[in-house]
Automatic annotation (TrEMBL):
The keyword Transferase applies. The keyword Ribosomal protein does not apply. One of its GO terms (biological process) is amino acid metabolic process. GO terms for molecular function: L-aspartate:2-oxoglutarate aminotransferase activity; pyridoxal phosphate binding. InterPro entries: Aminotransferase_I/II_large, Asp_trans, NHTrfase_class1_PyrdxlP-BS, PyrdxlP-dep_Trfase, PyrdxlP-dep_Trfase_major, PyrdxlP-dep_Trfase_small. Coiled coil: none annotated. It comes from Cephalotus follicularis (Albany pitcher plant). Belongs to the class-I pyridoxal-phosphate-dependent aminotransferase family. CDD domains: AAT_like. GO terms for cellular component: mitochondrion. In eukaryotes there are cytoplasmic, mitochondrial and chloroplastic isozymes. Residues 64-430 form the Aminotransferase class I/classII large domain. It catalyses: L-aspartate + 2-oxoglutarate = oxaloacetate + L-glutamate. This is Aspartate aminotransferase.
Length: 438
């Protein structure tokens, strides 16, 4: 700004009755970083999971391998758009009657109905009795957040118990929703299995009415799920203490390859007539990651309560993002309502689940062949997208530095990112990490 400009600005401001800035304060206008309104901000760390992809993208090595984020890759290491999704999209594009109007606050009605059916079962009494309210949300994360906000506003107990360990975003989502986060024991590093006794003890001493976050299947990051008998014991304990279940169902179909089998835990809790919340994601099981499609269902004990719950959910959603996007939910609805497309989806889903299971065997065999010290049978026993290897953060850092293998520092590997061509490289890296590092 030149000096004549400055004096003209000063005159204008005086004319308007505003105290004109002196020439020195004008020259100090926020043109330099030191005077930014945000200059006090510290550089925030990258997200522990999504930041792995940021680091991966910066690495020029041709042998680099991203086993961080839980996103499915083909044998060729490429992201996969399911055939059935392409078909549904084509159908949507060809339908000239479709418009881009706002959806209702709760999203696409058909999508909500079909999503409830998918998780609770077609013959669910809760659905038949109109005791379920389902709202379309922004994938699994958005569903958890809307559920958390709702509970923070309307539920008498603010404490939510999450498993130790759990998906890294859980504590952040629920804390920001105004809940107070506590943990319950879940994983036993010694057995690389479920710490069932610890879980029962911790839930047994939880204050009555506390919320409990449960992974419906394919627990992230451990790959360890309770058996059906253990689920039944958890259910009895929770119901006897009036604990409120909040299921996170991000991997329905990925654990066993079967959508119904993977919904058993949720259905057990609904079958007893009690209340619960469920956050569903279509990111993984339909490969709709970036479309952000999910649903929050709240099962209530009467239809009347469910109606009032839905009215309050609308008040939670409207000021956050008004209403959800239309495209992804339309894809899901098109697939779920058409018998032929639904069947095609289940076949493609099973193929993804099977490929992951086959990678578990290949990795286990490769470590066995190298004589890598340790018992690696957990690689085969664990369920879902991830293997919780037991590698420590130094070993992970070593594998990234020496082998360009990217994974979260807790030793979690996304098996869906592995293929027959990269398994040897990973096995070499693990072998070297175990024998040389940490
Ligand atoms: N719950 C769990 C247990 C979960 O693992 C994820 C994603 C989500 C919810 C949310 O997914 P959404 O895309 O909002 O539907 N987990 C993978 C990706 C991520 O961290 O965002 C992961 O753990 O790699």
């Amino acid at each position: 700004m030149g000096s004549s400009d400055r004096s003209r600005l000063g005159a204008l401001l005086r004319h308007l009755g505003v105290e004109g800035p002196t020439s020195s304060s004008i020259s100090a206008f926020p043109t330099s970083a030191a005077h930014s309104a945000f200059s006090h901000l510290l550089q925030a760390p990258e997200d522990p999971i999504l930041g792995v992809t940021v680091a991966f993208n910066k690495d020029p090595s041709p042998v680099k391998l991203n086993l961080g984020v839980g996103a499915y890759r083909t044998e060729e290491g490429k992201p996969l758009v399911l055939n059935v999704v392409r078909r549904a999209e084509q159908q949507l594009v060809n339908d000239r009657s479709r418009v881009k109007e706002y959806l209702p606050i709760v999203g696409l009605a058909e999508f909500n109905k079909l999503s409830a059916k998918l998780i609770f079962g077609a013959d669910s009494p809760a659905i038949r009795e109109n005791r379920v309210t389902t709202v379309q949300c922004l994938s699994g994360t958005g569903s958890l957040r809307v559920g958390g906000e709702f509970l923070g506003r309307h539920y008498h107990q603010r404490i939510i118990y999450i498993p130790l360990p759990t998906w890294g975003n859980h504590p952040k989502v629920f804390t920001l929703a105004g809940l107070s986060v506590k943990t319950y024991r879940y994983y036993d590093p010694a057995t690389r299995g479920l710490n069932f006794q610890g879980l029962l003890e911790d839930l047994g001493t939880a204050p009555s009415g506390a919320i409990v976050l449960l992974h419906a299947c394919a627990h992230n990051p451990t790959g360890v799920d309770p058996t059906l008998e253990q689920w039944e014991q958890i259910r009895q304990l929770m119901r006897s203490k009036g604990l409120l279940p909040f299921f996170d169902s991000a991997y329905q179909g990925f654990a066993s390859g079967n959508l119904d089998a993977d919904a058993q835990s949720v259905r057990m809790f609904v079958a007893d007539g009690g209340e619960c919340l469920v956050a569903q994601s279509y990111a993984k099981n339909m490969g709709l990651y970036g479309e952000r499609v999910g649903a929050l269902s709240i099962v209530c004990n009467t239809a009347d309560v469910a109606g009032r719950v839905e009215s309050q959910l609308k008040l939670v959603i409207r000021p956050m993002y008004s209403n959800p996007p239309i495209h992804g939910a339309s894809i899901v609805a098109a697939i779920l309502k058409d018998r032929d497309m639904y069947n095609e989806w289940t076949i493609e889903l099973k193929a993804m689940a099977d490929r992951i299971i086959s990678m578990r065997h290949q990795l286990f065999d490769a470590l066995h062949a190298r004589g890598t010290p340790g018992d690696w049978s957990h690689i085969i026993k664990q369920i879902g997208m991830f293997t919780f290897t037991g590698l420590n953060s130094e070993q992970v850092a070593f594998m990234t530095k020496e082998f360009h293998i990217y994974m979260t520092s807790d030793g979690r590997i996304s098996m869906a990112g592995l293929s027959s061509t990269t398994v040897a490289h990973l096995a070499d890296a693990i072998h070297a990490a175990v024998t040389h590092a940490g």
